[in-house]
Amino acid sequence: LDTARIWSTSSGERLHMLKGHRDAVCKATFSFDGALVLTASRDLTARVWSTKSGECLCILAGHGDTVFMAAFSPDNALVITASSDLTAKIWNVGSGECLRTLTGHRNRVYSAAFAPNMARALTASHDRTARVWNTETGEC
Length: 140
Hints:
It is built from no helices and 13 strands. The strands form four sheets. A four-stranded antiparallel β-sheet has the order 3-4-5-6, with no helix packed on it. Strands 7-8-9-10 form a four-stranded antiparallel β-sheet, with no helix packed on it. The protein starts with a strand and ends in a 6-residue tail after the last strand. The chain is globular, with a radius of gyration of 15 Å. Helices cover 0% and strands 53% of the residues. By secondary structure, it is mostly beta strands.
């Protein structure tokens, strides 16, 4: 459960086993251009992987609880993560740096996404709210 796998849709062969998480992988998704895979895990991290080599390119560490999901920005330069620690975070894919922590939910954040223009992000929480955030300022 602590790995993700990339399979060939034409041959059915396993191309890569993405090893490195220390607990269950909750979500995996491709970048918009298909060059990267993003995984979110109960080990409190998200990871960015190369689809070509299967190599872990970046570990996004900083949440205090399970990372339920993660999503790329439309240009693949940023990642947004959603966590049980009541926050979402925006990360720089190239450096792994956390650029913003989005706080204000009163329960687990289980979903997050960027708007197509990347100026806004949307989060949903078990507190029964959805919030729209300014990605530059982190304000809701």
